[in-house]
Amino acid sequence: MAEQIAVEVTRFSPERDKTPSIQSFDVPLRKEWVVLDALNYIKDKVDGSLSFRWSCRMGVCGSCGMMVNGEPKLTCATFLTDYAPGPVRIEPLKNFPVMRDLIVEINDFLGKLSKVKPWIIRQKEKPVTEGEYLQTPEQLDTYKQFSMCINCLLCYAACPVYGLDPMFSGPAALALAQRYNMDSRDEGKEERMDILSQHDGIWGCTFVGECTQVCPKHVDPAGAIQQYKLTATQEWFKSFIMPKGAK
Ligand code: SF4
Ligand code: FES
Fold this sequence. Notes:
This protein is α+β, with helices and mostly antiparallel strands. The chain folds into two domains: 4-104, Ubiquitin-like (UB roll); 107-241, Alpha-helical ferredoxin (Fumarate Reductase Iron-sulfur Protein, Chain B, domain 2), CATH 1.10.1060.10. Helix content is 33%, strand content 13%. The protein is built from nine helices and seven strands. Strand 3 and strand 4 (71-74) form a beta hairpin. Helix 2 runs parallel beside helix 6 (171-181) and helix 6 crosses helix 9 (221-241). The longest helix is centred in the C-terminal third of the chain and has 21 residues, at 221-241. The relative contact order is 0.12. The mean pLDDT is 91. It binds iron/sulfur cluster and FE2/S2 (inorganic) cluster (FES). The site of iron/sulfur cluster (SF4) has 15 residues, from helix 4 and helix 6.
């Protein structure tokens, strides 16, 4: 195995540059190193100004997502040796504005996420004295897969629909809406339906399935969206047969 690998990294400083450029660094190629280790090596030993996000280094926080040789990856869960002999190119997540080097602006996603109300909605809370809202293991299983999302945004970087139509709510926001819709303790399905049934909600998805392919947590956002489309269609038909308020 070669002792070094060329790591090509996007550089962009809004104060200095009009457009991003690529800078290449030689980095030791160690068997146990992930791509994030290569970036930390560059930052610690070569150029302290290199900017990128990370936190947990164990695939949990979701902050280290970047494009690695053109594919969205968690850099803390992607081995450097997979790209030997190199070069390996690391770029900011696609479909998001770049703030600096490998850091992207994610406000668009955060706005969309809060719009789908990803929390438990109760029409009426029961008093604390009545105890917890209990749930069976089977009820938990219906949404557990969707609750594994770590908001890493790899699915947005992979989604061609989001790339073309920034109004589209996108895979993770929709999967998280479904996570709460399926929760037996939740009563907010109708509220979310009004938001999601609009053009930029579920109907924007043409079922390309790239989001599910790249998801490091096996959330299956494409499956969640299709499941939700089916429910929305059923509700739409029901509203004709049994209009709201009819007995
Ligand atoms: S659905 Fe998967 S890829 Fe998308 S943000 Fe959640 S964990 Fe990341
Ligand atoms: S550093 Fe937290 S998921 Fe990679």
